[in-house]
Design goal:
single chain; 479 residues; mainly beta; Jelly Rolls; Immunoglobulin-like; 3 domains; 7-stranded antiparallel sheet; globular; binds copper (II) ion
């Protein structure tokens, strides 16, 4: 035992000697889990996380992913990491969305790490299918131990969590086609009602000390185009970085087949005490509406560091760097012939009257009008113009939440990351019918929803945003 310790110490010395002049980070690999993923799961969970370095030091890079137990990466259309946030001493520090952005600090900077820190894993794994599975949340850390000679030269950063819905456990907003005529929607700028319920703007942070910003990248959902970070000083505002969504997706800004740009290695923004940072998120609303969207831009801030460039008078390099290339798990785009009927050609189904029974949603099927059902139950239930159809989710007891979301008819193509979309001629959306812990859930905390009563006669098709293989239809007939 003693001899092994001595050997280990000698090895450490040899390594240190060989690399004394360069930052000698170790790459540490962790697998959080296995996480049991229930059928159709879309819940937010918090768990203690002790998978982290054993000694004090600096974390200089963070690379997240999601895998099956055998190490394979699941298709994003099957099961995906809606988000993962690594909380350190309760503060969000690193995060992953399905765009899988790696955080690599510029040379000379690190997040200070202490073994006494408290780590909590906040994760939302989304199962788009009825098949249960098991996954690991994986992450690689580049780590420089505090005893490494190069550690003394590292400057400490902390993460400033810039989020348009900062403080919300489920920080989302809707970007609807109807909200903008130009096909672009920026939150909160384009929403006159943003933050009314919160009583204050959630997308800002005012610096309580001088320092320098050294790294950022944006997080968006499908449809997202860019996040922007602004700095305001003495009444003047300037943009200090735009993180662009680069879509590999052939259909454009409609899927997770995307990578964000992060800041270039020499990006250093001077921050003075009293400066205010502001974040916004912009979505493409020309092709579809985007429900429950996000816009987050974690920023690495080095307190006390005076090497930053004055963003008003200096030369700031704001040219974004693509974080990664196309990922194979995004290859199933969907949209081809799917074998489901075109509901517009089906005979009318059951007539729903004002006091009629609701459409029950159960076992990943719409009770009547589901495009996978045969016979009368599969035909579009009909309702007279001016009346509504009520949907009622019976799967909530299994923590399975469904939506009724309008998609362009026939909405019967193969499911993939780019199909179906909330792109019907007339938008409607039920929200996630289900119940969950207040403030900590994507569920709307109700089980029923009524179709709009002002729909014109016609056949309407819809899908479930959580389980997009679920498709259905109904028909409005003249009074
Ligand atoms: Cu569903």
């Amino acid at each position: 035992m003693g001899r092994r310790l001595v050997l280990a110490a000698l090895c450490t010395l040899a390594l240190a000697a060989a690399s004394a002049s360069v930052a000698s980070a170790q790459t540490l690999k962790y697998r959080f889990g296995p996480i049991q993923v229930a059928p159709g799961q879309n819940t937010i969970d918090f768990k203690p996380n002790n998978l982290r370095p054993q000694v004090p030091g600096y974390i200089t890079a963070f690379r997240p992913n999601l895998t099956y137990l055998n190490g394979k990466v699941p298709g994003v259309d099957v099961v995906h990491l809606h988000h993962g946030v690594w909380l350190v001493n309760l503060l969000p520090t690193w995060a992953a969305g399905e765009e899988k952005t790696d955080a690599e600090l510029p040379a000379g900077y690190g997040w200070r790490y202490e073994p006494s820190d408290t780590w909590v894993m906040n994760y939302m794994v989304h199962n788009l299918t009825p098949t249960p599975t098991q996954v690991y949340l994986t992450y690689e850390i580049d780590f420089t131990p505090g005893t490494d000679p190069s550690a003394a030269a590292l400057k400490t950063v902390s993460t400033k969590w810039m989020d348009v819905e900062s403080g919300h456990v489920y920080p989302v907003f809707d970007a609807l086609r109807s909200a903008s005529e130009k096909g672009r929607y920026t939150y909160p700028t384009d929403d006159p009602n943003a933050y009314q319920a919160d009583g204050r703007r959630l997308n800002t942070w005012t610096a309580d000390q001088d320092g320098t910003l050294v790294w950022t990248a944006g997080h968006l959902h499908p449809g997202g185009l860019h996040t922007d970070l602004y700095l305001t000083r003495d009444g003047r505002t300037t943009r200090v970085f735009r993180s662009d969504a680069h879509y590999f997706e052939p259909a454009g800004a409609v899927s997770w087949d995307v990578a964000m740009t992060n800041t270039p290695a020499d990006w250093r923004v001077q921050v003075k005490r009293g400066d205010t940072l502001t974040v916004t998120g912009t979505y493409d609303t020309s092709k579809a509406s985007w429900y429950e969207s996000m816009a987050i831009m974690p920023v690495a801030f080095s307190a006390g560091d005076t090497t930053g460039v004055d963003p008003f008078s200096g030369q700031l390099n704001t040219k974004g760097v693509l974080n990664h290339g196309h990922l194979a798990e995004n290859d199933n785009h969907g949209g081809g012939a799917g074998g489901l009927p075109d509901a517009r050609g089906l005979p009318g189904g059951i007539l729903i009257t004002g006091s009629g029974k609701p459409v029950f949603v159960q076992d990943f099927q719409y009770g009547i009008g589901d495009l996978t059902r045969l016979g009368r139950a599969g035909n579009p239930p009909t309702v007279r113009q001016g009346r509504s159809i009520t949907f009622n989710n019976l799967d909530d007891g299994k923590a399975i939440w469904h939506t009724v979301t309008a998609c362009k008819a026939p909405c019967n193509g193969r499911t993939g990351i780019a199909y179906p979309l909330a792109n019907a001629t007339v938008d409607f959306d039920s929200g996630e019918l289900g119940t969950g812990p207040p403030g900590r859930t994507a569920a709307a905390n109700r089980l029923t929803w009524k179709t709009p009563s002002n729909l014109k006669p016609g056949t309407y098709t819809y899908f479930c945003r959580i389980h997009p293989f679920m498709r259905g239809s109904f028909r409005v007939v003249p009074r």
